[in-house]
Amino acid sequence: MAKLALRVNGAVREIESDDPDVPLLYLLRNDLGLSGTKFGCGLAQCGACTVLVDGRAVRSCNAPARAVVGQDVVTIEGLGSDDRPDPVQSAFIAEQAAQCGYCTAGMVMTARALLAHTPRPSEQQVREALAGNLCRCGSHARVIRAVLRAAAQGGR
Ligand code: FES
Ligand code: FES
Asked: pTM value?
């Protein structure tokens, strides 16, 4: 049984697992109850499980939890709140950039990582950044508008 101390949304959380390669996604959802991060494919193919690790967009289904010990993990729950949404979240609401919402947390986290290092991306840069985030509902056009809206409003 291995004990892992993960820093998630600003707090250190200690979790035990008997799987040395347990994916970060499983601990976030099953042990910490952070179900905003979704399990889509489990194969690093869809982006639904994207979280931030030291500001980088990481697919948590494909990241061993032990590999992020000592780094800052941020999930959608840690990005903003109902009262104080992150500018990317506000822009997604303004553009109604979701239908079922299953892909949305991953889209938002990927966009957040993009805007942190490229605050005023071109539409092409937004498209490229989100190319690996799949939306089965076909919300892509509105997602791209939302990210451009957040950027135009200084959404760092
Ligand atoms: S669930 Fe991780 S990329 Fe699809
Ligand atoms: S809004 Fe349904 S998968 Fe994207």
From this structure: 0.96
